[in-house]
Amino acid sequence: MHVQDSHWSSALAAGGMVSAAAGNGRGDGPRTTPLRVDAQRNLEHVLRAAREVFGELGYGAPMEDVARRARVGVGTVYRRFPSKDVLVRRIAEEETSRLTDQARAALGQEDEPWSALSRFLRTSVASGAGRLLPPQVLRVGVAEERGDASVFDEARVPQQRGPGAGGAGVGAGELRLVSEDDTGAAALLEVVGQLVERARAAGELRADVSVSDVLLVIATAAPSLPDAAQQAAASARLLDILLEGLRSRPA
After folding, report:
1. Minimal CA–CA distance to 174: which of 191, 138, 149, 154?
2. Half-sphere exposure of 211 toward its Cβ, with a 13 Å CA cutoff?
3. Each residue's pLDDT tens digit, 129-174
4. Would you say 170 and 212 are in contact if contact means Cβ atoms under 8 Å apart?
5. Where are the beta strands (DSSP E) in the chain?
């Protein structure tokens, strides 16, 4: 399941904190602290539940599932996020930012290009953020491959909680396409692009591997399994196999 483009492009900025005040009956001003604490707690529960539900079921999961997981009424969810689009965008932006931070850390702390790229992949897969990437990040490769930045061929793309794509580089046109919709996604593509270029220049990455391939690996290697230990083992094993496929081999 994945977010349709019409939903994604119409998403609003996430709403601010609700801070209604109730009188204390003595005429000495509003008492707001208890309500703010409860509202913050509810917001944290909703966001945590949304990450879990969307990570397991995809962005097509209904708001009622999020409310049940958060143990709040669906009305509470809608008071914080007036539509599912708003909640989806909030979650995707947070996960995209997390991946960008992980990529920057790998780029800045690893001297060896292959070590930097593999560290980013392992950290990102372990965090589960790949299951929550926004659609435009995983779809940019198809547009570049077709030479058409405005049309995407979903029939050619695996559906791993959102369309994925591979086999084409991420160029200025793709970054421009993404940045018009989400500057956070553009930042992620840029920093992952640096990891890819360093590994390719060092001769350690296959020449045909693109940024979109790397992001697809993150999305693919983070399966959602009911048992946490089994999920971690499956992710590690799958990532080992995928990393071997990315690495260049002597002719």
Report:
1. 149
2. 28
3. 778 887 767 765 444 444 443 332 332 222 333 333 333 344 444 4
4. yes
5. 22-23, 30-31
Where are the chain's structural domains?
A: 5-86, 93-246
Domain 5-86 carries which CATH code? 1.10.357.10
Per-residue pLDDT of 226-236, as tens digits, reads 777 887 888 88
**CA 78 – CA 127 distance, rounded (Å):** 27
Cβ 2 vs Cβ 161: under 8 Å: yes
| Domain at 93-246, CATH from 3.40.50, 1.10.357, 2.60.40, 1.10.287 | 1.10.357
User: Nearest Cα to 46, choosing from 7, 85, 81, 89?
Assistant: 81
In three-state form (DSSP H/G/I as H, E/B as E, the rest C), the secondary structure along 146-205 is HCCCCCCCHHHCCECCCECCCCCCCCHHHHHHHHHHCHHHHHHHHHHHHHHHHHHHCCCE
pTM of the predicted model as reported, rounded to 2 decimal places: 0.67
> Quick one: CA torsion of 63, 93, 200, 240, rounded to 10 degrees?
-40
Residue 200 to residues 42, 112, 132, 152, 228: CA-CA distances in angstroms? Answer: 46, 12, 27, 27, 34
- The answer to whether domain 5-86 and domain 93-246 are alike in fold is yes
Phi and psi for 119 in degrees, rounded to 5? -65, -45
